[in-house]
Input
Amino acid sequence: MKKIFLLFLVSLVSLTAVFAQGAEESAGYTFATNANWPPLEYVDENGEIVGFEIDLIKAMSEVSGVPMDYVNTSWDTIFAGLANGQYDGIASGVTVTEERKKTIDFSTVIYQVTQSILTKKENSDLTTPESLFGKTVGVQMGTTGHFAMEEYPEITIKAYEDIALAIEDMINGNCDAVVCDSVIASDYVLANENYSNMLAVTGTASDTIEDIAIAVEKGNTELLDIINTSIAALMENGTMDELYAKWNLI
Output
């Protein structure tokens, strides 16, 4: 009887471990995104969050077999939310910088951008940072476009909660130009029929080429390994190229 009872306990412990492992695996990971950056992530006409990085999260989940989800949040609190454990990672056009590396870890680079000058077509002479001296420039607060403009005290900066507000304010005549990631600027001009006839990308606000990657809490090597392994697999099987083509990321 004791032997049978002992075998029962061993079996029970083994089953508990298996189910516990399964529960842990099924818990998955959640990524924060600020869905105001087409074509990387934005809310479409149906109210759905779509974009390159949203598709990338889904593709990583599929290729890894690990459940992954995403949540829309404001940019000004997105890094604090990661630090507080509100989500596991950030997939929101995050530029890799030395300052950010002090507190977060980054995945393999998924895309590269520069900082573009976006203006009304009649302001086509605004092509360089120097041409913006004495002008008012809209940026999204806390972004690398914001940081780039802070290098020039001769420029008046208007910081907005999201880039769409900055662009609308420029259209309404409240600022002369907007500085933002090149892929965002191009999307507003090339893919957005509401703006393509009135806006133009006229120049570059910075010579720096920025690496875009997925951010995780510093030291979270488990998630980082899953992300990097997934990205490598998606590059190998051609899925990344398909996503670049789908979202006009050239």
Notes: The chain has two domains: 28-112+211-246, 115-204. The radius of gyration is 22 Å. The chain is about 40% helix and 25% strand.
